[in-house]
Design a protein that fits this description.
Helix content: 25-40%
Distance between the termini: 38 Å
CATH class of the largest domain: Alpha Beta
Number of strands: 16
Shape: elongated
Number of domains: 2
Number of helices: 9
CATH architecture of the largest domain: 3-Layer(aba) Sandwich
Oligomer: single chain
CATH superfamily of the largest domain: Zn peptidases
Largest sheet: 8 strands, mixed
Length: 414
């Protein structure tokens, strides 16, 4: 979805870094090309090559990550001291992060010239928008740097495999993408927010999400003599019902720590107590401190119930992602940037989402913030939700995202 023309905001032309019409059209075309050719996590070779080619065309020097996909590109005099050697005033590098992978679901949009050409693959989470926004911001900032108008160095970070637990951010960090970075910002498409607006929130803006797999084992036997066996079905049932309650009572209720089961499997006959049971589910949490406690709490609760029923437990607790916790100072940087571009009326307060986002791993290392980028066409009825095959975005969001990031880079203070 796109708009053929837009009225400039009052005074917008006087601001450095305004998106030219020709570049705006190019970015829309770039986004549509990505949308037509989605690639899954750690397979984003075409996407990586397309980004690299466009950055090199602008005279920049992008570097593909050692894991094979994803790349970084620095703009500005990295490590340079604007007041001369030894003054101690080197500004911290600001990183702009985008995720570049797609989802393993079909694109179900019926009337769309740029729908996915790859079976069972779709950019149904807006990563093509995120990528285009960071690319566009990089091209604008590169031109400003040539004019001597970029006050601090900026790193463009195009990250693979966000959709793969525990997220490609961990691999990217291992590749050194945060070396020299003092702050990091990102956007995520929000189909509940109108294009032209962003949503901001201090503190947690997403939740943590981990995966839990449990095996229970016991002697089993005849249902006529449960007292001589490990009554495994009862043990599994008690784990399912009692563990969530135990865990919830051992942390502050405001943390939102919740164990929710999605699968339980055991037994094959009505008169045989089985020897093996399997359970799996998720652990979600709104609070970062409680998330750090969650593995120990869950392990202890499962073992407690299993031991009570003489069952042996084996637990596979798979760390997913912590909550994205926005730094208040950098959140206000985004507010200032959006206000400078489009006015305070273009900002709304957003709620904490129960979804997970691996941008949180960067925030374990450096301060940063994520904004919700509105992608709903104003006046559109209903919501095309994320991770649905019919998801699409109002492409006006590209302009808004580019100008948000550009302004943040220009006003960001060390």
């Amino acid at each position: 979805m796109s708009r053929e023309s837009e009225a400039d905001l009052p005074g917008e032309a006087a601001l450095p870094g305004t998106l030219p019409d020709a570049l705006r059209a190019e970015l829309v075309a770039f986004r549509r090309d990505l949308h037509m050719h989605p690639e899954l996590g750690n397979q984003e070779f075409r996407t990586t090559a397309a980004i690299k080619e466009r950055l090199e065309k602008a005279g920049l020097k992008p570097r593909v990550l050692s894991i094979g996909t994803g790349l970084i590109c620095d703009i500005g005099d990295v490590g340079a001291d604007p007041e001369g050697p030894g003054s101690g005033t080197v500004p911290p590098m600001l990183a702009l992060r985008a995720d570049i992978d797609a989802l393993p679901i079909p694109d179900t949009k019926s009337e769309c010239a740029y729908r996915s050409t790859v079976p069972d693959r779709a950019h149904a989470c807006g990563h093509d928008i995120h990528t285009t926004v960071v690319l566009g911001a990089g091209l604008v900032l590169a031109e400003l740097h040539k004019q001597g108008r970029l006050p601090r160095p900026v790193r463009l970070l195009f990250q693979p495999a966000e959709e793969i637990l525990p997220g490609g951010a961990t691999d990217a960090i291992d590749c050194g993408v945060l070396d020299g970075v003092g702050r990091i910002i990102a956007v995520h498409c929000d189909p509940k927010v109108d294009a032209g607006r962003i949503g901001l929130r201090h503190g947690p803006i997403t939740s943590a999400c981990d995966r839990l797999e449990v095996s229970l084992d016991g002697a089993g036997g005849h249902t006529a003599r449960p007292h001589l066996t490990t009554d495994l079905v009862t043990a599994a049932a008690r784990v399912v019902t009692d563990v969530p309650a135990l865990v919830a009572r051992r942390v502050d209720a405001r943390s939102g720590l919740a164990v929710t089961w999605g699968r339980i499997e055991s037994g094959h006959a009505c008169n045989v107590i089985p020897q093996h049971a399997e359970l799996s589910g998720t652990v979600r949490c709104l609070d970062l401190d409680a998330w750090h406690q969650a593995p120990d709490l869950v392990h202890a609760a499962i073992d407690e119930i299993a031991n009570l029923h003489r069952a042996k437990s084996e637990i596979n607790y798979v760390r997913g992602v912590p909550p994205v916790v926005n730094d208040p100072v950098i959140t206000e940087l985004l507010r200032d940037a959006m206000t400078a571009r489009r006015g305070a009326h273009s900002i709304e307060t957003t709620e904490q989402s129960l979804g997970g986002e691996d941008f949180s791993w960067y925030l374990e290392q450096v301060p940063g913030a994520m904004a919700r980028l509105g992608v709903r066409s104003p006046g559109e009825r209903g919501v095309r939700d994320l991770h649905q095959g019919d998801f699409d975005a109002d492409e006006h969001a590209i302009t808004v995202g580019v100008e948000l990031f550009t302004a943040a880079a220009l006003i960001e203070q060390g």
